[in-house]
Amino acid sequence: EPEVTQTPSHQVTQMGQEVILRCVPISNHLYFYWYRQILGQKVEFLVSFYNNEISEKSEIFDDQFSVERPDGSNFTLKIRSTKLEDSAMYFCASSELVGRGTSGGAVADTQYFGPGTRLTVL
Amino acid sequence: GQNIDQPTEMTATEGAIVQINCTYQTSGFNGLFWYQQHAGEAPTFLSYNVLDGLEEKGRFSSFLSRSKGYSYLLLKELQMKDSASYLCAVSVYNTDKLIFGTGTRLQVFP
């Protein structure tokens, strides 16, 4: 069964350093997402990406964050200058469709999550 | 605003049945998902409801009442491996994101 993969599984970095988290979404999916989960807290949406551009981002996704699809398979999240509060589990997800409603009643599609990257900022 | 409520923790016995409730207040409801998350792992898709009623999938069933803003996940014939967090997540019209509840941590005892 196809699955989303992520590397690395763990990343430890010093405050102020740049990190790049990598994801390979499911191959026929068109929509890609990043979520994060701070230890003991809920999963939070960061950003969605479609057709080579950001389609939606949360207030968490500030100028320190960027996403890119550098080739036909990878999807990356870059944090330019990490802060202590960026320590979290970062999940990539992908779906075939997106949950935007239309007058025709389009429904949300399932988002499939990768195993996550645990980022620790010291 | 958007709000999703689930109980924080539940316990149950192996072989039993457990029901995990989720209530939500959102504008533009576009479907509700249940995910399972073992500690330190990714959320794994369990079920999806967009219309009222019960969806059954093996030992797991999910129910939705849109008028009440209510869903539940029913787990039958509990196994030790079902010990995990169960996340309720809502999709909203004209957004891409899933809005997650805090999750219900289920512990299954022998």
Question: What attributes does this structure have?
Answer:
heterodimer, A: mainly beta, 7-stranded mixed sheet, 4-stranded antiparallel sheet, 0% helix, 46% strand, B: 110 residues, mainly beta, 6-stranded mixed sheet
Describe the 3D structure.
Chain A is mostly beta strands and 122 residues long. Helix content of chain A is 0%, strand content 46%. Chain A contains no helices and 11 strands. Chain A has strands at residues 5-7, 10-13, 19-24, 31-37, 44-50, 53-57, 65-68, 75-79, 88-95, 112-113, 117-121. In chain A, strands 2, 4, 5, 6, 9, 10 and 11 form a 7-stranded mixed beta sheet that branches. In chain A, strands 1-3-8-7 form a 4-stranded antiparallel beta sheet, with no helix packed on it. In chain A, strand 5 (44-50) and strand 6 (53-57) form a beta hairpin. Chain A starts with a strand and ends with a strand. The mean pLDDT of chain A is 90. With 110 residues, chain B is mainly β. Helix content of chain B is 0%, strand content 60%. Chain B contains no helices and 11 strands. In chain B, the strands form 2 sheets. In chain B, strands 2, 4, 5, 9, 10 and 11 form a 6-stranded mixed beta sheet that branches. Chain B has a 5-stranded antiparallel beta sheet with strand order 1-3-8-7-6, with no helix packed on it. Chain B starts with a strand and ends with a strand. The mean pLDDT of chain B is 94. At the A-B interface, strand 4, strand 5 and strand 10 of A face strand 4, strand 5, strand 9 and strand 10 of B.
